[in-house]
From TrEMBL:
<feature type="transmembrane region" description="Helical">
    <location>
        <begin position="268"/>
        <end position="288"/>
    </location>
</feature>
<keyword id="KW-1133">Transmembrane helix</keyword>
<feature type="transmembrane region" description="Helical">
    <location>
        <begin position="174"/>
        <end position="193"/>
    </location>
</feature>
<feature type="region of interest" description="Disordered">
    <location>
        <begin position="1"/>
        <end position="51"/>
    </location>
</feature>
<feature type="transmembrane region" description="Helical">
    <location>
        <begin position="90"/>
        <end position="110"/>
    </location>
</feature>
<feature type="transmembrane region" description="Helical">
    <location>
        <begin position="309"/>
        <end position="329"/>
    </location>
</feature>
<feature type="transmembrane region" description="Helical">
    <location>
        <begin position="199"/>
        <end position="217"/>
    </location>
</feature>
<feature type="transmembrane region" description="Helical">
    <location>
        <begin position="237"/>
        <end position="262"/>
    </location>
</feature>
<feature type="transmembrane region" description="Helical">
    <location>
        <begin position="62"/>
        <end position="84"/>
    </location>
</feature>
<keyword id="KW-0472">Membrane</keyword>
<feature type="transmembrane region" description="Helical">
    <location>
        <begin position="141"/>
        <end position="162"/>
    </location>
</feature>
<feature type="compositionally biased region" description="Acidic residues">
    <location>
        <begin position="42"/>
        <end position="51"/>
    </location>
</feature>
<keyword id="KW-0812">Transmembrane</keyword>
<protein>
    <recommendedName>
        <fullName>CDP-diglyceride synthetase</fullName>
    </recommendedName>
</protein>
Length: 330
């Protein structure tokens, strides 16, 4: 028998057996005799991971104010179309240019494009040129307004190339820039439509239907905002449905009073199209605002934020009215 050699290493027999049982890992010093913690997770930590989304309250006075603003826009579009004569379209253009400036204020502050100042200036110039061409052009054609919109969009993109922080956002925000420039220029279309055969009547039906839909929907939200469209969106389904129904009904009623080619059925179709477009834009603005707030973006100026929906709705109703006047009523 050879004499046993003393073990200078810390790996004695008991430690080797422990390592084998633990899968080959050496226990940390000072914690060999402590059992593993098998306590259940803290319920507060699990609750934090699945927090319930808080429902945003609906402010009655604000809903009524937005309804009133939408009604004023509709009345302005209708009265301007009714009072536009062949030699007196300049007052209508001046009123619409004021609406275009409001549109730029609301949408630039809400969407915050790269180089917001130059983008707004370029869009204002494009809107002014579109108004001028709508009033003074020999033929009431859509193509010149399209070229003005594209030129304004290109100029706005060029203005966003000078600073490095603006160039970095260019690929993600070009749609925002296009919406700002095109929406401002679209308000020139009602002037163009008043110079065409069925355009004035189409503007009246679309503006009345969209205005009734937005006013009823917003006013209903102040009284009965149920059921909620989403927890973070202070809008109710009942108001949207009721507004769509009454807006379509108003279009059908106007169709029974207007002259050829309008009929109650055609008035209902035109009114329904305007109502759908207006509601989609208005709700898209609400969802966009809720998304920015959830993302932690700084809220925009509250007046501009709440004007954005009606202004965007009527901006998109204008091209819809032009399309209906040329592809459905003729």
């Amino acid at each position: 028998m050879f004499p046993s050699m003393p073990q200078d290493e810390p790996w004695d027999a008991d430690a080797s057996r422990e390592i084998a049982r633990s899968g080959g890992k050496r226990p940390s010093a000072g914690f060999r005799d402590e059992p593993e913690s098998s306590s259940p997770p803290d319920p507060d930590e699990t609750d934090d991971e699945f927090e319930e989304i808080e429902e945003v309250p609906v402010r009655r006075q604000l809903s009524l104010a937005i309804a009133g603003f939408a009604g004023l826009l509709a009345v302005g579009l209708v009265l301007g179309a009714l009072t536009s004569a062949p030699d007196s379209r300049l007052p209508y253009a001046i009123v619409l240019f004021g609406v275009q400036l409001l549109y730029l204020l609301a949408w630039v502050m809400a969407l915050n494009p790269p180089a917001p100042g130059p983008t707004a200036a370029v869009a204002a110039v494009a809107a002014l040129v579109a108004d001028y061409l709508s009033v003074t052009s020999v033929q009431a054609a859509l193509l010149p307004l399209v070229w003005v919109t594209l030129a304004g969009f290109a100029a706005a993109l060029i203005g966003q190339l000078f600073r490095a922080q603006d160039r970095a956002r260019l690929t993600d925000s070009w749609r925002t820039t296009l919406a700002i420039v095109a929406g401002a220029a679209a308000y020139a279309l009602p002037i163009l439509l008043t110079r065409q055969e069925t355009g004035t009547q189409t503007v009246i039906v679309c503006a009345v239907a969209a205005g009734v839909a937005l006013v009823v929907a917003r006013a209903a939200d102040a009284v009965f905002p149920k059921p909620r469209i989403a927890a973070q969106v202070p809008r109710g389904v009942a108001g949207v449905v009721l507004g769509a129904m009454l807006g379509t009904l108003s279009g059908a009623a106007l169709g029974s009073f207007l002259v050829f080619p309008f009929t109650p059925a055609k008035g209902a179709v035109v009114g329904l199209t305007a109502v759908v477009v207006a509601h989609l834009v208005d709700l898209a603005v609400n969802f966009g605002q809720a998304g920015r707030e959830l993302a932690g973006d700084t809220p925009t100026f509250w007046v501009a934020r709440h004007m954005q929906g009606p202004l965007g709705a009527f901006a998109l109703v204008a091209p819809a009215a032009y399309a209906l006047s040329h592809w459905f009523l003729l």
